[in-house]
Amino acid sequence: MKSLVGNVSLTRRIFTHWELYLLLLPGLLYFLIFKYVPMFGIIMAFQEYSPFLGVTGSEWVGFRHFVDLFQYDQFWRLLRNTLLISFYNIVFYFPAPIVVALLLNELVRKWFKRTIQTIVYLPHFISWVVVGSITYILLNTETGLVNQLIVSFGGEAHNFLADPDSFRTMIVLQNIWKEVGWGTIIFLAALSGVDTQLYEAATVDGANRWHKLWHVTLPALRSTILILLILRLGNVLDVGFEQIFLMLNDLVYPVGDVFETFVYREGIGGVGLGGGRFSFGVAVGLFKSVVGLILVLGANKLAKKFGEEGVF
What we know:
Belongs to the binding-protein-dependent transport system permease family. By secondary structure, this protein is mostly helical. The chain has 2 domains: 1-62, no CATH class; 64-305, MetI-like fold (Orthogonal Bundle), CATH 1.10.3720.10. The protein is built from 16 helices and 2 strands. Strands 1-2 form a two-stranded antiparallel ribbon. The longest helix has 29 residues, at 164-192.
């Protein structure tokens, strides 16, 4: 009886507030069609998938593709490269939007603040192909602006694009330049919800701007920072295929080859372990997802242990 009453009540609420549920529908359809339905394809990781036989007719091979992945002679290099790039992004890129949001929040003139916001947002809408082209124009040894400046000051031109020591730094700097403005949106939204009376009370107590930042602004952002960090850990093995692929060359492969480029070559590109191994590519993707899930669950549990809310 309670269940029936609850169902009737839910149905009544849907009919009463149908406009709100209609607004919710596109988001639900997006996650259903593009997130949940494709999860059926995970079964390919345990098959020797053939496009001619389909998922239901392909041969079942169990964990063979996972064994091939872990026994691959370059597996630890791929794992190290992926983790290092993710680690550098967390250390240097993740705090960058927070810093920019704090700086923008300190601006008094709204027109100037909006202008700066617009400028730092724009790179987000530029494709990685264009970003890669800009990087090449700036850093190539012949006509690159950076090398021309180095030579003009008496130095020697350096091939940054083919230098393994510069590759990861270049990737992180590209991420910061392209996405830091877009990343400030969430933090600026969180800052807009801070009670202004807290700043007024701090002023009465004699606090300067640094004290207000440390004791009022940052505590207000703490939960947002923690949630985004936990979610970021879920993508620790995803460093971005397009960006890495565009910047790779033979000289930086030892430090730049990651799981995404590896899956492209072995699962689609037809090079290396046999080519066209769709099931193998799905197995690598499933491995990455499982690692991300474990990290999210662990980080969320650790956050709750220290008294924070966590993601769920």
